[in-house]
């Protein structure tokens, strides 16, 4: 087994260092390990397991939620959410920064994707903040960080995959992600406010005071967008449809809103949305299939159990073990794509968490929050690259400005990790 571990993970890390795409790296390392270190498994098993893994009803939710998010983004939703967010917090000092965070939280409840949230909100807010002298680095790093909430607030694509991989309730994971996502958003607002005051970046306000008439007007205009998570989540918890069916309902709803209500979704936008969804889904699902083949190899070689024993032997204190798991996930998230990390690591870490008394749903939230931080952690840092492209800001400027926001996310992670009620409150409430 030692040889298997060395070959499997050695090949994987070598290929990652060589900048081989993570999905291909996972598949190639699995095949090489079967050839060199395992005698009783045919290499054809990789193809078989990869194909079988994708023949899953819950996994259909991934392309459905992706398409619903893209349709909403192109159908005028992001602009209306921004206007509503601006009416709520735009009057405060550093209002544009607070609007960006709040808008990302709203859009997260629609897209389920970190990069999609950054692209949709950042295209409006980064140039606006730059115009008001917030600084390109701060504007882009703030948007990238707030965009990471997209994978925490439901519906969340990583939660869907985590539910499939770990055998957990997707609806419970959705419920568990709501409160932590809100907590992260509030902490980011607080820290952004402090940074703006300390550095005097810009204290100009979009409004002098809250305008309740404007709040109502923008709310009325955005109501159809805001109803999306209510319809999706409400339908799931009312037992009307499953998470996968809810994703399909979200597509139909996005089409109705974009075509007939907002009237900004035309045939070209629909076609572009389908093409974009195919591209994202293709890049995602091949990675999922190969990752599950990788995870199968781990399981039959009993590698998760061995790693779990090593982790548990490091300390008798559950607090220390959970901290070690968090640090491990933070490192992994900086180098490996979220989807691959979930599929590979869930079978390894979930039993460890349960062994030290952590609720599996709570651990699911901990895992996703850790990997969400990976969206703003180089060298992968997908959200950083997206915000750099959208705002036309040098990558190194964004990384430097993101340090206090990264620290904020880490503090939020520690709170979420050691206060289980934040994750389990809604789950227990709706039981």
Question: Can you walk through the features of this model?
Answer:
- With 431 residues, the protein is mainly alpha-helical.
- It has one domain (42-429).
- The chain contains 21 helices and no strands.
- Helix 10 packs across helix 20 (403-418) and helix 15 packs antiparallel against helix 16.
- The protein is globular and about 70 Å long.
Can you give keywords for this protein?
single chain, mainly alpha
Short account of what is shown:
The model has no long low-confidence stretch (mean pLDDT 85). 79% of the residues lie in helices and 0% in strands. 52% of the residues are buried.
What's the helix and strand layout?
Blueprint: H1 2-17, H2 22-37, H3 44-54, H4 61-74, H5 77-89, H6 95-111, H7 114-131, H8 136-147, H9 157-166, H10 170-199, H11 212-237, H12 243-261, H13 267-300, H14 303-313, H15 318-335, H16 338-355, H17 360-373, H18 382-391, H19 395-401, H20 403-418, H21 421-429
Helix pairs in contact: 1-2, 2-13, 3-13, 4-12, 4-13, 5-6, 5-11, 6-7, 6-8, 6-10, 7-8, 7-18, 8-18, 8-19, 9-16, 10-17, 10-20, 10-21, 11-12, 13-16, 14-16, 15-16, 15-17, 15-20, 16-17, 17-20
Q: Spell out the helices and strands N to C.
A: HHHHHHHHHHHHHHHHHHHHH
Number of helices: 21
Coarse morphology: globular
Pick out the low-confidence regions.
none
Helix content: over 70%
Q: What is the rounded Rg?
A: 22 Å
| Strand fraction | under 5%
Describe the largest sheet: none
Number of spatially distinct domains: 1
